[in-house]
Amino acid sequence: MTRAGFQFDIVARDRQTAARSAVFRTPRGDVHTPAFMPVGTQATVKTLTAHEVATSGAEMLLANTYHLSLRPGEETVAELGGLHQFMGWPRPILTDSGGFQIFSLAEMARIDEQQAVFRSHIDGSTVRLSPERAVAIQEALGSDVAMVLDHVVALPNAADVIRDATQRSVRWAERCRAAASGKVPQLQFAIVQGGLDPQLRQWCADQLVALDFPGYAIGGLSVGESPAEMYTVLDAVCPALPQDRPRYLMGVGRPEDLVEAVARGVDLFDCVMPTRNGRNAVAFTDAGKLRLRNARFARDPDPIDPECPCLACRHSKAYLRHLFMAGEMLALRLLSHHNLTYYQRLLAEARSAIAQGEFASFRAGKLAGWQTAGGGEPTQSPGG
Amino acid sequence: MTRAGFQFDIVARDRQTAARSAVFRTPRGDVHTPAFMPVGTQATVKTLTAHEVATSGAEMLLANTYHLSLRPGEETVAELGGLHQFMGWPRPILTDSGGFQIFSLAEMARIDEQQAVFRSHIDGSTVRLSPERAVAIQEALGSDVAMVLDHVVALPNAADVIRDATQRSVRWAERCRAAASGKVPQLQFAIVQGGLDPQLRQWCADQLVALDFPGYAIGGLSVGESPAEMYTVLDAVCPALPQDRPRYLMGVGRPEDLVEAVARGVDLFDCVMPTRNGRNAVAFTDAGKLRLRNARFARDPDPIDPECPCLACRHSKAYLRHLFMAGEMLALRLLSHHNLTYYQRLLAEARSAIAQGEFASFRAGKLAGWQTAGGGEPTQSPGG
Predict the structure, then answer these.
(1) CB count in 10 Å sphere of residue A193
(2) Cβ <8 Å between A333 and B86
(3) Catalytic residue status for B244
(4) Option in B67, B88, B318 nearest A314 (CB)
(5) Are B262 and B295 members of one domain?
(6) Are residues B30 and B107 in the same domain?
(7) Domain span at residue B199?
(8) Does B244 share its domain with B336?
(9) What is the ipTM of this complex?
(10) Are B221 and B233 in contact (CB under 8 A)?
(11) Which residue, A18, B63, B267, B349, is most buried by CB atoms nearer than 10 A?
């Protein structure tokens, strides 16, 4: 895929799975995929500076159109030089369209063919978001990748509700495409919807592929379905997407979900899980999650992971536990940085494994390590 | 003053005031005075990493014996290598003795000649703190400077209550001296009490000076008195202290208080004001305080101070305001770092002014700048 200033170059493919490694080149820098985008909902990755997000290994991050349009408002961001300048992150940014937040955060949302009308979760004021407005906001923010506005519904749901929302999402994608001014260096990605129905997912993918978007997202997941159901959707959708375009699985997820999605050909991820878990004293490791409030760490002199280059792993688990028990904000920062660093290292290892033809053993090894600890928690929640 | 591993060398004196500039040499590094010690109550300066505290310009910090003995306990800290190792701050640390926290934080404190008995503010358990125990805790923590346990009372108060507490503070200072093991490289500073009565303050200073401590603090201030009353106490106490020993004004204060105290011969300060104000969206500047939630900053593209090297001043005031309005923790970090950097730069300027014989114009210039904004807020509160 090549568009003005953007290029997606696949550099390695796994032989046994659909996993691939690529370089997504943008005017603001390269993103090595599979890649994880930290979530900077309100123009900040919670608790961290942009510099710290970069030192975690992140090359691209996500910000939320819904939140930023409500506060401080996209016009304010534009007046202050655009989102990159505003938040001090010079590298690529992807903005979502607000579809997921309307579904999850907004109060009394009513969606008709023209637009979504809802009440702001901040002050209760009435907000209207149409496909055209979602495009205009994202152009004002100046993100590198913009998402089309989609209609997200809860799962499980009645088949006709899902079909109706999926068909609307396709029509709205077409309207978003038409609304793009072409005046900003910004790619627009489409979003495949369709609930858990493989046929409907494939139909949606086919419709969107016919519209020739430069990238495709898989949306409407991590809304209550099981991991197995999610993987089944990926098995249906990924083969229907063009090989030469980036594929982005929205709002997912656990480390095991990322590895399984990479195996199915996904390139980009975002999720609040590493930062939210960090703020809740949960650290990701190759042996599963550590809950740092646990009394067994009270005198533990070792770091979470002596190999980890993050800010938390300069300290003992005893110190981290003390900070959490004492209610100190530094704890939230340190563990957020650890978890983001863990996710980045995981995907760096995945890229390396794909390049070296060792993805199968990488996948098996990681899954075995995590399974010792059990798991299975919902992966997505609204708003960073 | 020279004690094993410690030395206090005065390098410059102002000709018109009692201001002096010195190097306080310790086994863990030099502290250039007048110096401000950020408050790391619970083994962390709130919201910041030790590295960030160092980049603000701080050379020494304060930690709280009361808090650390309750949580995680001084034995845990000792087992983990001592306070410096525990919190990742290799430079000098001063620990207070708990006297002020018993006064301000503990519930149902009863003080008799032997000790203070009170209930922990964390879990309500009964805690006993004697002069001997305060020494033992601070030796276990391994701080570079320990404070004697003093008896702090509220102001205003009955003359006999203040006199009784002051006399007890002297007796407790003597017991602390006797209790020091001499096995750790740690100086013990005495604390001059005496309320607002110049004669009682001088009497207390004389008693403590006769005991030949290597450093002297002025305590029991910032507990409700006016700035003028505080300055009157300094005028009485400082001349009674030996010229060759460091002088530490505990828990003070506003930038103007620091400058006025430096003029009266104070060398060391600590206060929660810069960090607490930072967490409350208030930034210190040479033109007074800025309240960053104010709507007038909503589209302000300029930093708080373009000359300031802190983390906040890489961003626009509009971005900082956005972070506060959005409830983002990053805002608290950035403004804490700004305010600590402001305090450190202020004292660096004071040292430079003293060395160059320009302290009078420095003092007048700073006071004029701050007075444009008005001010006068209480400076101290318990517990960082």
Answers:
(1) 30
(2) no
(3) no
(4) B88
(5) no
(6) yes
(7) 2-271
(8) no
(9) 0.96
(10) yes
(11) B63
A44, A79, A87 ranked by CB distance to B299: nearest: A79
For A319, the closest of B86, B322, B334 (CB atoms) is B86
- Asked whether the beta carbons of residue A42 and residue B319 sit closer than 8 angstroms, the reply is no
From A271, A299, A314, the end of a domain falls on A271
Tell me: the pLDDT tens digits for A148-169? 999 999 889 999 999 999 999 9
Domain containing residue B84: CATH number: 3.20.20.105
Would residue B190 count as lying in a domain? yes
Q: Does B159 touch chain A (CB under 8 A)?
A: no
Helix (H, G, I), strand (E, B) or coil at A321: helix
Q: Indicate whether A190 and A310 sit together in one domain.
A: no
Residue B308: C-alpha distances to residues A51, A282, B315, B340, B347 (Å): 18, 36, 11, 11, 14
A46 and chain B: CB distance < 8 Å anywhere? yes
Residues A116 and A25 in one domain: yes
A42, A70, A204, B323, B331 from B326: Cα distances, Å: 7, 10, 36, 5, 9
Question: Is residue A174 situated within a structural domain?
Answer: yes
Classify residue B376: in a domain, yes or no. Answer: no
Q: Among the options A96, A257, A267, A286, which is catalytic?
A: A96
Best B70, B330, B335 residue to mutate vs chain A (most A CBs within 10 Å): B330
The dihedrals phi and psi of A145, each to the nearest 5 degrees, come to -125, 125
Number of domains comprising chain B: 2
- Number of Cβ pairs < 8 A linking chain A and chain B: 102
Q: What are phi and psi of A151, to 5 degrees?
A: -110, 105
Q: B329 and A325 in contact by Cβ < 8 A?
A: no
**The predicted structure's pLDDT at residue A373:** 59
Q: What is the pLDDT of residues A308-344, one digit of tens each?
A: 999 999 999 999 999 999 999 999 999 999 999 999 9
Question: Which chain A residue lies closest to B312 (C-alpha atoms)?
Answer: A49
Distance of residue A251 Cα from the nearest chain B Cα, in angstroms: 21
Q: For residues A109 and A171, state if they share a domain.
A: yes
- Decide which of B271, B292, B326 is a domain's last residue: B271
pLDDT tens-digit series, residues A181-226 = 999 999 999 999 999 999 999 999 999 999 999 999 999 998 889 9
- Clarify whether residues A243 and A284 are in a common domain: no
CB atoms B86 and A316 under 8 Å: yes
Q: Quick check: B81 contacting A, CB < 8 Å? A: yes
Distance from CA of A278 to the nearest CA of B (A): 14
From CA B173, how far away is CA A309, in angstroms rounded? 46
Is A378 part of any domain?
Answer: no
* Catalytic-role residue among B14, B270, B286, B305: B270
Rounded alpha-carbon distances, angstroms, from residue A156 to A229, A230, A249, B106: 11, 12, 19, 54
Summarised one tens digit per residue, pLDDT across range A77-102 is: 999 999 999 999 999 999 999 999 98
